[in-house]
Structure formats: structure tokens, C-alpha cells
Amino acid sequence: MTVKARIERIGEFVDQEVVLEGWLWNKRSSGKIAFLNFRDGSGFIQCVVVKQDVPEELFDLAKGLSQESSIRVTGIVRKEERSQIGYELTVTNIEVVSRTEDYPITPKEHGVDFLLDHRHLWIRSPRQRAILKIRAEVIKGMRAFFDENGFTQVDPPILTPSSAEGTTNMFETEYVNGENAYLSQSGQLYMEAAAMALGRVYSFGPTFRAEKSKTRKHMNEFWMIEPEMAYVEHKENLQIQEALVKYTIKHILDHCPTELKVLERDTAPLERVVAEKFPIITYAEAVKILQEKGHDFPYGEDFGAPHETELTNHFDLPVFVEKWPANIKAFYMQPDPENPDVILGADLLAPEGYGEIVGGSERIHDYELMKERFAQENFDDSYNWYLELRQYGSVPHSGFGIGLERTIAWICGIDHIRETIMIPRTLYRLYP
């Protein structure tokens, strides 16, 4: 009896007849054989139609199929060492479900704007499918890490009355009662409240920043994972971040070898990340390294992309840069008791030019100090609940945020962050 199969599990059906349901990606043919590159969403497989083994009308049908026509293909699964997946299908029948004409994205080169205008179709290509599969596995791996380490997922609100770091780069809307409301740029403040209830928590969801940035590392809608942990101080916070990154990279190496091959990703740098300890340097040490390497970089400024690349090239590993000047970091970050001008926080810079993927810190837990910060920031009453966290049962606590798309871009080794999400939202793009 012919069974329905998926390409991702095709190895379970060697020498059996199966039905695959999907689409024709492309084809080539000679006078006697037609090769159909078929996809079903779970993968790609070559389907071989041999003229002498099938009715003439079936061979003509195979040769006449158009790109992205939806079809059901019946055939015998064969081992094939030359195949990327190790198998191919010897076709015995084809049923056309829907014929496609004039598919816009052809094997020829297309401009980026054209491809983004057709992003809803572009994601069908092998490369884009591989990136989205890796995205799904990154999420799965991160969730597994948190599940295995005693974290509880909590979902903070997306509509907020204020911001975590100022409203200048936020999307504003009017709430149902006429008040100003904003699309969240971070769930961190709410997650601190959740940590006081559940100990170790994380959020995972979309964030929105109305920055007018056109760099390859920025989007206006992206996804963040934001853990917060009660009774965790700065050093332990870095240890947890490193463990999460290593766990995630190993998960991808173990579960996405085919996708990494499609992307032609050199996995040696990723394997090194799993195997070696991440270096930790202070901001002051980072500035010294940059200056010694010829950068005219003054103490007290944030790093740009060239500076982050220089630092990671120096170590050839993800590197923590800790103890930043307090005046260029957020109000809630705990000052270093040995030097209150710097904070107990760090950014994790990914190697190979990908830059910051994690930012975190120990949070201020002292009520009086937080009151001082509130006065300096001129906060209104919409932040009172956050101050109360320091008034009722405050404890040392820490947290961080890891940008999903930046992490995926690094793992995949791709140039632009816009390929790491299904439909990107960038400065000039709200379509499709």
C-alpha cells in the first residue's frame, strides 16, 4: 500500500512506494530522463522520471511542469549518495493539483528590493527555507535551555504606558480611554516583577523600535528573549548567558546540518564557540585594545560596528565587555561598588563581525538609589509600580536580553538581518 510521506523522514521508506505532496521548485531534462527538484516544506528531494519506465503522457507531463506548480508525486524511495539528503525518488506517477504560470522569482538573479516585494514567495527558496528552519530550532533550543534550568516563561504586555529606556524611539498610539500608549521596546521592567514572584523567568516576544536606522543589524520589529533572575548577581549572570549561547549553538549543530550545508556555513567557528571559554574584558580594556590597533576612540562612547568587529577579531570568540561607563547605560543598572562610575553589566559581542547579540546587567535593588535615579530621569507616576519592587521584598537580581534575529544572522553566517524573519519591517518597508 502506498503511504504518504514527508521528505524530512524519507529515509524511513527506502525501497517503498510513497506519495509526496508539495511543489515543483525547478526541473531539468534530457531526451530520456526528467529531474524534478521537488519540495514539500520539510525539505527538497530530486524526483527522477525515466522515459522508458513510465507512460509517454506521464513523461510529457513531467517535462511540461512549470515552476511552483503544486503536485503529488508517487514513486519509489532510493538511496543516492550524491544527493544532499542521501535519497531520491524514482517517479511512477504525477498528479497536478494546481498549475502555476509566470512565477515571478526565477533562477536568474533578482534585486533585493524585488525579492523583498515578493518576500511571501521568496521564503520558498532553499536558502530562505533553511534560515527559517534554523530560526525555529534556535527558538526550540533556547526554550529547552530555560526549561532545563528552572525558568518559567512569562508574557509581559506589548502595550505600555511608558518605556524602559525613554519614549523617543517608540511607536505611539492612542489607547481606548484616550491615553498615550506605546508598543513595547522591551519587557524587562515587567520581567523584574515576574522574577520577584517566580524566581527565574524569561519572556519571548516581539519588540518594536521606531529607529530610523538603515544598517544591516537593525529592524523596526524584532523578537527578544529577556530572562530575569532573583538572587543572581553580575558574575553568575554572565555564566548563564554563556551557557545559553553554547547550548543554542550546539543544538543547531546537532539538529540543522542540512540547513547549514545549504547556507554553505563554515561550522568550525561555531564548534569553537561551544568548546572554549568566552573571554571577559572591561570597557576600559576594550578601549585600550582599540586605541592600540589604531582606532581614534575616546573613552565614554558606545562602540560602532567597526569597533565591535575589531574586538571580536582580536579574540576570535564571543567576548563579554563589562563595566561600562554608567552615564551611557540605562538608569536601572547596578553601579560597581568598587567604582560607581561604571556598572555591573556587559554586552556579549559575537565574532565574525556580527557584534552585540546580548546586553545585560545586575539591576539596582536598593530603594533609595532607585529613587535617586527616578529623580534624575524625571519619571512620572507611570513608573511607580517599578519603584515599589525595591520597596517590598527587594533582592539582588540580574537579567539580560538576547536579540533573536542577530543571533540567527550570526549562526547562519548571513550578511543582513532582514533574512532572519519571515516578513521584515525596516525603515522603508511595510509591504508585504
From TrEMBL:
<dbReference type="Pfam" id="PF01336">
    <property type="entry name" value="tRNA_anti-codon"/>
</dbReference>
<dbReference type="InterPro" id="IPR004522">
    <property type="entry name" value="Asn-tRNA-ligase"/>
</dbReference>
<comment type="subunit">
    <text>Homodimer.</text>
</comment>
<dbReference type="InterPro" id="IPR045864">
    <property type="entry name" value="aa-tRNA-synth_II/BPL/LPL"/>
</dbReference>
<dbReference type="InterPro" id="IPR002312">
    <property type="entry name" value="Asp/Asn-tRNA-synth_IIb"/>
</dbReference>
<dbReference type="InterPro" id="IPR004365">
    <property type="entry name" value="NA-bd_OB_tRNA"/>
</dbReference>
<dbReference type="GO" id="GO:0003676">
    <property type="term" value="F:nucleic acid binding"/>
</dbReference>
<keyword id="KW-0067">ATP-binding</keyword>
<keyword id="KW-0963">Cytoplasm</keyword>
<dbReference type="InterPro" id="IPR006195">
    <property type="entry name" value="aa-tRNA-synth_II"/>
</dbReference>
<keyword id="KW-0648">Protein biosynthesis</keyword>
<dbReference type="GO" id="GO:0005737">
    <property type="term" value="C:cytoplasm"/>
</dbReference>
<protein>
    <recommendedName>
        <fullName>Asparagine--tRNA ligase</fullName>
        <ecNumber>6.1.1.22</ecNumber>
    </recommendedName>
</protein>
<dbReference type="GO" id="GO:0004816">
    <property type="term" value="F:asparagine-tRNA ligase activity"/>
</dbReference>
<dbReference type="InterPro" id="IPR012340">
    <property type="entry name" value="NA-bd_OB-fold"/>
</dbReference>
<dbReference type="Pfam" id="PF00152">
    <property type="entry name" value="tRNA-synt_2"/>
</dbReference>
<dbReference type="GO" id="GO:0005524">
    <property type="term" value="F:ATP binding"/>
</dbReference>
<keyword id="KW-0436">Ligase</keyword>
<dbReference type="GO" id="GO:0006421">
    <property type="term" value="P:asparaginyl-tRNA aminoacylation"/>
</dbReference>
<keyword id="KW-0030">Aminoacyl-tRNA synthetase</keyword>
<dbReference type="GO" id="GO:0140096">
    <property type="term" value="F:catalytic activity, acting on a protein"/>
</dbReference>
<feature type="domain" description="Aminoacyl-transfer RNA synthetases class-II family profile">
    <location>
        <begin position="132"/>
        <end position="424"/>
    </location>
</feature>
<keyword id="KW-0547">Nucleotide-binding</keyword>
<dbReference type="InterPro" id="IPR004364">
    <property type="entry name" value="Aa-tRNA-synt_II"/>
</dbReference>
<comment type="similarity">
    <text>Belongs to the class-II aminoacyl-tRNA synthetase family.</text>
</comment>
<dbReference type="GO" id="GO:0016740">
    <property type="term" value="F:transferase activity"/>
</dbReference>
